[in-house]
Amino acid sequence: MSSNWEYAPAPESRDIANLKPAYRMFVDGKFVEGSGEPLKTVNPATEEVLAEVGTASAADVDNAVKAARRAYDRIWGRMPGAERAKYIFRIARLIQERARELAVLESLDNGKPIRESRDVDVPTAAAHFFYHAGWADKLGYAGFGPDPRPLGVAGQVIPWNFPLLMAAWKIAPALACGNTVVLKPAETTPLTALVLAEICQQADLPPGVVNILPGAGDVGSELVNHAGVDKVAFTGSTEVGKLIQRSLAGSGKKMTMELGGKAANIVFDDAPLDQAVEGIVNGIFFNQGHVCCAGSRLLVQESIADELLDKLRYRVSTLRVGDSLDKNTDVGAINSRAQLEKIQELAAAGDAEGAQRWTSPVPVPEKGFFFAPTVFSDVQQSMRIAREEIFGPVLSVLTFRTPDEAVAKANNTPYGLSAGIWTEKGSRILWAAQRMRAGVVWANTFNRFDPTAPFGGYQESGFGREGGRAGLEAYLDV
Amino acid sequence: MSDRISVAKTYKLYIGGAFPRSESGRSYPVNDSRGGFLANASQGSRKDARDAVAAARKAFPGWSGATAYNRGQVLYRVAELLEGRREQFVAEVAASEGTKRGESIVDAAIDRWVWYAGWTDKVASVFGASNPVAGPYFSFSVPEPTGVVAVLAPQASSLLGLVSVVAPVIATGNTCVVVASQDRPLPAITLSEVLATSDVPGGVVNVLTGRTAEIAPWLAAHADVNALDLTGAPEAIKADLERAAAGTVKRLVRSGRGEPDWAREPDVSRLRAVLETKTVWHPMGV
């Protein structure tokens, strides 16, 4: 029998996204014209313009912060937790009800596969609101004293890799703790955050409690440096995180930084190999590798390296790259041309420094921003592809001989966001987990996220946690 | 004015997701606070109690094994349905308790349900711990539901009190057999109807109506009941019930003499009361 079993296209309809030609910023409960230069947001899988989006000027930032302050002083900051909870539950439910629309819109704007936005991003965003709604009237039990108080107005800047989910991670705990919010979505992915604004309206959330200001880095800078902002939460690159931390020096503002990573995914010789291969693939190719906690450095015990790499290359070659709205797509589009160029540049550095490049033979669309899954072997710790965050579907493979060497190599990074451990031996998992200088350690799994489980980094991967009991601290005056 | 004759409701037991009459065939009249006839309620028997315990036990693996997130969603959905039946509850509470504060009582009951719905996925992080033991071990303690809880519901507060004792039991993953307020059982049966049309699996909550003093001893002595909430127990038999409960070392939930003030903000004592702590040890080392 021939092996001509082709996938038939299974596209999700883009009509479901309910895409509008123009989107406006959301301030004080209303959608208003921004006085910044409008931006055009693009579908990275086709390079077509999706919509024009109004952006904020410095004056708009000021208005939004003032609206947030009024809402905090007059309503939200004084409202009993049980009442705040009900608003946040409503938001959770509305996200669930509009899940399909949000998923398609997210895939259009971001380029990620519809299966992922449908099964991960949107449901996890709803879960985040649901979980934090429950905290709003239980903060006295969170371990920060009997009656912890909110901080005030939170200025939040989020990245383009999980646009809606990151908005949820930021807004849900802030509101639950009694703060009001001014949030800037990423320049290339503003759409789902603006639908979330619509959801806030539908939930009858009091005006000014949530404000959404699209724009580029300059808007983010205005926002975090605004004197009326009490709390700054940033998710993005370590480079920008350092800039923000520096510019806020002496301001007394409380900060949370969720920055870059270069996670080690350690595979010991007794690991269940097929399971490990799935985890490695998920660790680096999930969301095109646009994941701050991606398992981008694979550390394999030398004795099993050849066998594992053979299995890995075979498995990676089966990943389908292409149309983000096709339910058969495993790896979608790179979010922007700039990001694609950065990935290409770092991959070229891998070649130049002597690593062995293997690229999946998968067909890649001619239009749009795509990068075929790539695995570098013979990688040395000194190479750029072992040190720098690529933020793309590129895996660097290094080897080790002893567990101590694995730990030393894993920790040989200024980052410290996540790590993976693969072994059948429980005691070794716990031994290695204890030694990882990283905020999240996955054992025999990877890239698991849950609102109940705190997430965040050590060292230059940032500080503060999101999710769980620990995550509440970021939005409380404690 | 319409002269239509209304359709009167038959109030029955709630066992394993179904609404049977008492196997004993007995019923008893339920009156309003001024002595006027409201309805006949089923008068549950020893066998009804045993059926209810069997149903609760059968439902326990599924309910306790559901994720905390799922339980939270299911319980929050119950609050949504309670809100939809608000007027019916207000009328029944007003009739049963002879109060003019029916609306605020029902509001408080719905909010109480939401409060407990929000606890499902927080119990483990508030009551659990990792234990820094002095050795190469990873040790952690997790709270787990104790099992089947027999709940003698408050006699006076027919809805708010009832919600306050039932919600914490199921939020933590337990299943229960509830003996409703003897003289004010109607809100409990209506609550069962809400539960039956919600996503709470049959058997997670079972509701018996009848004489508390008749049913309670069988539950207190039942070997497949793990905990006993004595809140609505008649003072005269409380000590006897505790003695019977000792036969299988049941956990006891005791409130002082008289009924607590249910309108007060709750604390976590009712959650803790129905939780076990499980400590797990695992060696650490290459």
Automatic annotation (TrEMBL), chain A:
Pfam families: Aldedh (PF00171). This is Aldehyde dehydrogenase (NAD+). Belongs to the aldehyde dehydrogenase family. Residues 31-477 form the Aldehyde dehydrogenase domain. Transmembrane segments: none annotated. Keywords: Oxidoreductase. The active site is at E258. Gene3D superfamilies: Aldehyde Dehydrogenase, Chain A, domain 1, Aldehyde Dehydrogenase, Chain A, domain 2. One of its GO terms (molecular function) is oxidoreductase activity, acting on the aldehyde or oxo group of donors, NAD or NADP as acceptor.
TrEMBL record, chain B:
GO terms for molecular function: oxidoreductase activity. Residues 30-253 form the Aldehyde dehydrogenase domain. Transmembrane segments: none annotated. Keywords: Oxidoreductase. InterPro entries: Ald_DH/histidinol_DH, Ald_DH_N, Aldehyde_DH_dom. PANTHER family: ALDEHYDE DEHYDROGENASE-RELATED. This is Aldehyde dehydrogenase family protein. It comes from Kutzneria buriramensis.
